[in-house]
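Run log, item B.
One chain of 254 residues. Sequence copied directly from the ordering sheet:
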Amino acid sequence: MSAVYKDDQEDWLTVCLKYLLFVFNFLFWVGGAAVLGVGIWTLLEKSDYSSLLASSTFAVSAYILILAGSLVVVTGFLGCCAVIREQRGCLSMYFFCLLLIFLIELVAGVLAYVYYQRLSEELKQHLNQTMTENYAQPGKEAITLAVDRLQQDFKCCGSNNSHDWMASVYISSEAAERRVVPDSCCKTITPLCGKRDHPSNIYKVEGGCITKLEQFLADHLLVIGAVGIGVACLQICGMVFTSCLHRRIKMDPY
């Protein structure tokens, strides 16, 4: 009698673990969609600004999230199959896939956090130089477009203020046609509107574009880090459930 009760109890525990893994897989897919969405959104919507940064850590973090999110879709399907078939080989493969994605997302989260810590210093050292030396120069079209978009999106002018443009290679050249700032500094862009730098004509923002860009990137890095580390922590639960189910199936003599 006790043996039958023990077998029934073990079956009940196995069924509970299977349902827990199904619930986890659903949450895992939702988390994977969030990871994939954040990565794609970061690259498609704001990738222009990457050309203004001295390092590629911001873009790399987004690419890592896209890779991890794509793997989640495949791994979630594998997890369902492993639970339904109750095969130790499938469960083992599922566990190692979870571990791999966990490490990938953890790396993305750590990269985002580390870059967040040194973002301000990097922008102070490089943004003004990038803008003044490369704007409207041959072969630097990506930077020119990024600067124009930056100044229009954040309604700012110059790295620290509009006077930064006085040291610009572009403003000092004949191509500027006596502009004192690029036309993208203007509140209403019209041809040659950059000739007049009065506050009624151009954006005058305290702290300049560097403050706006720093806040924008910091917010994005926090989202990337939080999503990556959050989903990675969720996967710890999945690995625990998978290990328990793998152990129970291994103990089953049939």
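Observations after the first pass:
- The helical segments are 2-46, 57-85, 88-134, 141-153, 208-251.
- The radius of gyration is 26 Å.
Flagged for discussion on Thursday.
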